Amino acid sequence: MEKVGASLAFGFFFLVTLAAASRKILQIENCLSPGVRLYKNNHRMVMDNGLVQVTLSSPTGDVTGIQYHGINNALETKNREGNRGYWDVVWNEPGNRITYDRLKGTDFKVIMEDEDQVELSFTKTWNFTNGSSSAPLNVDKRFHFMAISDDRQRIMPMPRDRLNGQRLAYPEAVLLTDPTNPQLKGEVDDKYQYSCDNKNNRVHGWISHDPPVGFWMITPSDEFRAGGPIKQDLTSHVGPTVLSMFTSTHYSGKDLNTKYRNGKPWKKVVGPVFVYLNSISSLEDPTKTLWEDAKDQMSIETKSWPYSFPQSEDFPSSDKRGSVDGQLLVDDKYISDGLMWASYAYVGLAAPGGVGSWQTDAKVYQFWTEANEEGHFSIENIRVGHYNLYAWVPGIVGDCRYDAIINIQPGDDIKLGVLVYEPPRNGPTLWEIGIPDRTAAEFFVPDPDPSLVNKLYINKSTDKFRQYGLWERYTDLYPEHDLVYTIGVSNYPQHWFFAQVTRNMGNHTYQATTWQIKFEIENIVRTGNYTLQLALASATASELQVRINDKRAKRPHFTTGLIGRDNAIARHGIYGLYWFYSINVPSHLLCRGNNTIYLTQPRCTSPFQGIMYDYIRLEGPPETG
Ligand SMILES: *[C@@H]1O[C@H](CO)[C@@H](O)[C@H](O)[C@H]1NC(C)=O
Ligand SMILES: *[C@@H]1O[C@H](CO)[C@@H](O)[C@H](O)[C@H]1NC(C)=O
Ligand SMILES: *[C@@H]1O[C@H](CO)[C@@H](O)[C@H](O)[C@H]1NC(C)=O
Ligand SMILES: *[C@@H]1O[C@H](CO)[C@@H](O)[C@H](O)[C@H]1NC(C)=O
Ligand SMILES: *[C@@H]1O[C@H](CO)[C@@H](O)[C@H](O)[C@H]1NC(C)=O
Ligand SMILES: CC(=O)N[C@H]1CO[C@H](CO)[C@@H](O)[C@@H]1O
What we know:
This is rhamnogalacturonan endolyase. With 625 residues, this protein is mainly beta.
């Protein structure tokens, strides 16, 4: 492959200190002699390194122009200047309505200006804020082709195709009935179909074929993103829009809202994120070449983290951070007599809190890694602070937390040695459904309604769940009677629907559903209790009631109560937040021979309500001796 023509980089460094003030820092580095220059002209600041020219409004700090490789302005010039490249937050005072703020700067300062680096700072003192519309960075319409990962790339529709299309039941989804590009006719467009886990969301963006230019959002670290490595969020979508999401309630709901109250100060650096433009001579295949080059650049940026260039004491360099390492093992005598490696466990430091609390924390930095096959892990470049160490192990149920508080000081290299996780377990496995991996991906995901497809996910096994309207397929498959799963006969990839949703009865009415698990027990052990281990992968305004051998029992044997706002069903996720329950089942509730567990989700006012299961296991009483 030919080397990419001219590649260049400029960093956006967004920093917010909400308690007192907000600050955005934009910075450009030298790529060519004669170096970086800064032109000041009334309300405009132009940073120029000979390859790219970035224009900013002063003192508001919006990016109003990016000139590159023959494109006079890569941003949407039809939008007014404040609506091209900006940073926004959504917030509200307790009890007040939700407010939208573009964080417009009121003061401006040149932090650094020499031929190698120009760094500008736009600050704003906290005050009541002013509402507006939605959606961050916009890019010129010449960018048609969007790439999120190796196998999630496609030609995208235009904004007006959405306006001309038919809005579907979930407002962000549109059926393209009259698109500019006739090949897209009949497809569904929905920005949530392009969501991505934080841990995989390192580079995404757009390609223009004429001229052949790529525009990329590179995020070298997850440390400042909310909710940990498997929090999902938006990437790029029709506009063309490129987002860098720092925090949101997507796939988590209000459980992840951050609250700042009672004058308690809070400070967090979000970013720097890296905006990368690349170009090639038009003889090459731009799609492949520009994407591969963007991935290479992403690896370079990831290795350069934490950046040394930010001129801010709030962004510590590598030598002012610490590291932690150790080995995680699993102790479950009903799986193995000896200790097992926590193979490929996710291990992370996050704010001190309860087991699993990291998945709803947005205030504090998080530092995660994946252990190797033997459970060895090493987390580097951790900011100074107090943390708990959390983990979960693919294939093992539950959440793990190391109880001691870990205090990181500059230069610390903390060796934790061997840590042992004892997952929830009371007795031998009688049966299990699913794989404990915090997702419903292993269950039955139906084909979409043929009139509501996104072709990107047709004929793909991994991303099938990203199609629109799969919740409706439950009613098609189970028009009258709910799902019945028989242990030893049914198999979960085919017979366990990925979400327990409501049944659509027409005329905007929905019906509660009750699923059954049928199983035989040859001999009841009366000397101890049985346990139902229940892990949920998602819940939206739902309640799960468990009844044992008595479908009509007025009071369920167990209920979760009303839980969940993650909205993963409507947003085509295969998981949201994780919920775990260990349910005591006294032996007198079970009988010799056939038994049935009834799982009822009684809340049924919307088609998007429901739960996803991660894993269910029935355990016998503890074995003695
Ligand atoms: C906050 O905004 C209000 C109205 O825009 C203004 O009157 C007031 O002076 C501002 N306060 C500060 C501290 O800037
Ligand atoms: C999916 O596969 C079928 C059978 O191989 C093929 O006919 C169809 O064109 C494919 N659809 C897409 C969108 O790739
Ligand atoms: C639909 O519901 C409305 C309000 O409950 C009712 O007036 C109407 O008759 C229903 N239509 C059908 C076809 O059931
Ligand atoms: C078994 O369950 C009953 C409640 O139904 C409880 O009182 C008892 O303590 C349990 N026994 C054990 C050994 O957990
Ligand atoms: C359990 O139910 C199955 C049919 O669902 C039946 O064939 C079997 O005989 C039953 N077992 C007992 C012990 O009743
Ligand atoms: C701090 C700030 O942006 N204040 C603005 C809020 O809205 C009023 C009226 O729309 C403006 O006059 C303020 O400048």
